[in-house]
Write a structure and sequence with these properties.
The complex is a heterodimer of chains A (169) and B (236).
Chain A (H helix, E strand, L loop, with lengths): L6 H13 L2 E14 L2 E19 L2 E12 L2 E5 L2 E10 L2 E14 L1 E2 L3 E15 L4 E13 L1 H6 L4 E4 L2 E8 L1
Antiparallel strand pairs in A: 1-2, 1-10, 1-11, 2-3, 3-4, 3-5, 4-6, 5-6, 6-8, 8-9, 9-10, 9-11
Chain B lengths: L1 H17 L2 E2 L11 E5 L3 E6 L7 E6 L10 H8 L6 E5 L25 E7 L1 H12 L4 E7 L15 E7 L7 H6 L9 E5 L23 H17 L2
Parallel strand pairs in B: 4-5, 4-6, 6-7, 7-8, 8-9
Antiparallel strand pairs in B: 2-3, 3-5
The chains are: A mainly beta (169), B alpha/beta (236).
């Protein structure tokens, strides 16, 4: 993957939170299904994420920062994506989302670049004008090319499950 | 809200920076003569010709060290004597303290192995000592590489066989610390000091913060350590 392709999502990740109208703090459990090209179901790790959303017409742009533990130790990800509601039932909204995920595997003497993508669905429920809950299910692919070249192949497919508390302005 | 969000972002980033693991050297692969099965929760190393011993060796990596950094030194252990199955435990965030029992679930996973010895490097040795303390019937022996048990996990009254291997110039698990914790190990414990060795060269991940300066090569230290461990496993 050309690292220059990450310029746009990183730019979004930086500027979008400055204008965001909706923030969430999420905890994620990460059951994994595949590891290095073979089916290998196991619990992969967990993460905490802070995300900002900016509604625009019928979609919302989202950008965040996520720290978690995984098969690479600690990783710092910056998912950037878009979501769109496909069903509204009372205070609940069901959304589909897609993200690209640039990130870093946190190693000494220097971190290694990693990237991935995630697709999934979430359900948001606001119990007041400002506060709400979010439950999210996704399928995520992550790869760390330099680690693969230097140590051992690292490509994983996981099913992250998140619960988040949301606040909208 | 922006202040809360900023604080949360800072905590997330700080936690990530604090959890940096040592990356294995690019020359840290297995030696010839072994096969490596790299799974999500463990790395199994066995001689290509098959493990001749029914004794397996579980290994808990040092804290914040990528488990692949131990493939090379433990490949050498796998080739000792009749040949051993060696299992490197993968831990969340590369910190065994977060899931100390992870090693126990792996003892059922290797065909042909019906007895186990356990070992660990540095913090991994501390965790291995605790596992032996709590599961005395499960392990025939304990190998401590540049490590020692906590007082709460004292093995002094247990019949388990223990090998303690350290480096002469270890700047972290120093001679003084190892000597001070001898009362927590059985009197029969075998102590070996590798002349010219250091802390980090038990794995293959480069220089470690706070470590001493070795006067022998990493390969030399690992070959000597593997011989000590192989002889110890052969006596179990």
């Amino acid at each position: 993957m050309d690292k220059r392709a990450l310029f746009v999502p990183l730019l979004l990740a930086f500027f979008l939170p400055l204008h965001a109208l909706d923030f969430s703090l999420a905890l994620t459990a990460v059951p994994g299904v595949a590891y290095s090209g073979v089916v290998d179901p196991a619990f992969t790790g967990a993460s905490a994420a802070l995300e900002a959303r900016l509604p625009y017409r019928s979609v919302s742009f989202r950008a965040g920062i996520e720290a978690g533990v995984s098969g690479l130790g600690v990783q710092l990800l910056a998912p950037v994506g878009v979501d769109r509601a496909f069903l509204n039932v009372g205070p609940c909204s069901f959304l589909a989302f897609a993200s690209v995920i640039p990130g870093l595997a946190m190693f000494k003497p220097r971190p290694l670049f990693m990237y991935g993508a995630e697709f999934g669905s979430s359900c948001s429920w606001y119990w007041s004008d400002h506060w709400g809950l979010d439950v999210r299910l996704g399928i995520r692919y992550l790869s760390c090319p330099e680690y693969s070249a230097r140590v051992a192949r690292y490509e994983v497919v996981d099913f992250p499950v998140s619960a988040a508390i949301r606040y909208r302005l | 809200m922006n202040r809360i969000a900023s604080a949360a972002a800072a905590i997330i980033i700080f936690a990530s920076l604090a959890g940096c693991s040592y990356l294995p050297d690019s020359s840290s692969g297995a030696v010839d003569g072994v096969k490596v099965d790299d799974r999500r929760s463990s790395i199994l190393i066995t001689p290509v010709s098959g493990a001749g011993s029914s004794l397996g060796f579980l290994f808990v990596p040092g804290g914040l060290v990528d488990p692949h950094a131990y493939i090379q030194p433990l490949s050498r252990v796998a080739l000792q004597g009749p040949g051993y199955a060696v299992v490197i435990v993968k831990e969340p965030a590369n910190l065994a303290v977060l899931n100390p029992g992870a090693a126990l679930s792996l003892t059922e996973s290797v065909p042909g192995v019906n007895r186990w010895a356990i070992g660990g490097h540095s913090l991994g040795g501390v965790i291995a000592s605790g596992l032996v303390k709590k599961n005395s019937s499960l392990f025939a022996g304990l190998v401590l590489e540049a490590s020692y048990p906590q007082e709460s996990d004292s093995l002094s009254a247990m019949a388990v066989k223990v090998l303690s291997v350290s480096g002469e110039f270890d700047g972290l698990a120093t001679r003084a610390k190892i000597d001070a914790t001898k009362p927590f190990l059985p009197a029969s414990t075998q102590y070996e000091v590798i002349a010219g060795g250091c802390h980090g060269q038990f794995g293959s991940y480069g220089a470690q913060d706070g470590d001493g300066t070795p006067t022998i090569s990493r390969d030399a230290q690992q070959i000597i350590a593997a011989k000590f461990i192989g002889d110890f496993l052969g006596g179990l």
